[in-house]
Amino acid sequence: MEKSIYLLPGDGIGQEIMTEAVKILDWVRREGLLSMNLTSGLIGGTAYDLTGTPLPEETVTAAKAADAVLLGAVGGVKWESLDYAVRPERGLLGIRKALDLYCNLRPAQVFPQLANASTLKPEVVAGIDIMVVRELSSGIYFGQPRGVETLPDGRQKGLNSLVYYTDEIQRVARRAFEIARKRQSRVCSVDKANVLECTELWRNTVIALSGDYPDVALSHMYVDNAAMQLIRNPRQFDVILTTNMFGDILSDEASMLTGSIGMLPSASLGEESALYEPIHGSAPDIAGMGVANPLAMILSVAMMFRYTLDQPALADRIERAVNLVLDAGLRTADIWEPGMQKVGTASMGDAVVAALSA
Ligand code: IPM
Ligand code: MG
After folding, report:
1. 296 contacts 280 by C-beta, under 8 angstroms
2. In the chain, which ranges are E strands?
3. pLDDT tens-digit profile of 307-350?
4. Exactly one of 6, 48, 141, 164 is catalytic; which is it?
5. pLDDT category, 358, cuts 50, 70, 90?
6. How far does the centroid of ligand 2 lie from the alpha carbon of residue 358, in Å?
7. How many domains does the chain have?
8. How far is the CA of 253 from the centre of ligand 2 (A)?
9. CATH number, domain containing residue 77
């Protein structure tokens, strides 16, 4: 049956890297490996410019109807002074909420070819394989009440609320345990239970649930310690399960173990919908220059084949093609080192497509 893929390039380099992702999809279609119907829509600042909102209703409707959504990136200096409610980022948060994408998978793996690209010593990062499972549709990003108000005495008060319900913790924790079973069967749940009651509930809920997964080793870490341990000894981690905001921070940190944020894909999963995007942003400083690294976007396509379209062989093939291209010494500027061949966005995409048939 034909699969429907909805493309949301978004802003900045989102447009350029999406073009490269589509080359991969076109190759899959040309080879007759899977029949897919591609449509695209608007999100972020680009959507705001054209429609007055960063998340048009049609985008939500089309995303809900699709088998999978591929997203580039949102945001840019141009929109930074806009009212908070219509900033590009609201489009991203809005679609996560609208599709109830509560489980965000952010793998951090070191490509051996790029071991020198990390600022950490190669012997510290060699062989790391971490899966950050970030809760994505609740927590402090969405909790009410929120906002900034001016008090009678003239002071302003800013407020955000960290809220989790047990069922919200359970559903993302279940995913983490299930993913761990397919890996090294270890889950480290990260919280701040020594200070925040809400994350004490998080910890207790995860502990209660762990009875259903006796084969998975569960440990707990406070987020400050986890931030330190990620740098000190990252190989100790298999699956890291954590809240929305801690996951935002720790996944950026984990990406730097691998050398470049330009290499890391992600999957955002709900019960009915799935969205795939690189974890990096829209990089306005290099947008339109044709130098962005498309590999995180391309690896997000691989994740889509693995987690939503049930095509593990295609996922393996794309990941293998990326490895071949790195083996051949091709590097975009963000991962370039002396002796390697510097290429732009389009050449990198073309090289991956060529390697798919190799
Ligand atoms: C991410 C990003 C987003 C987030 C921003 C752009 C809203 O940093 O996907 O990690 O904070 O979730
Ligand atoms: Mg982030």
Report:
1. yes
2. 3-10, 36-40, 68-73, 103-109, 129-135, 147-150, 156-159, 186-191, 217-222, 239-242, 265-269, 274-278, 330-331, 341-342
3. 999 999 999 999 999 999 999 999 999 999 999 999 999 999 99
4. 141
5. confident
6. 35
7. 2
8. 10
9. 3.40.718.10
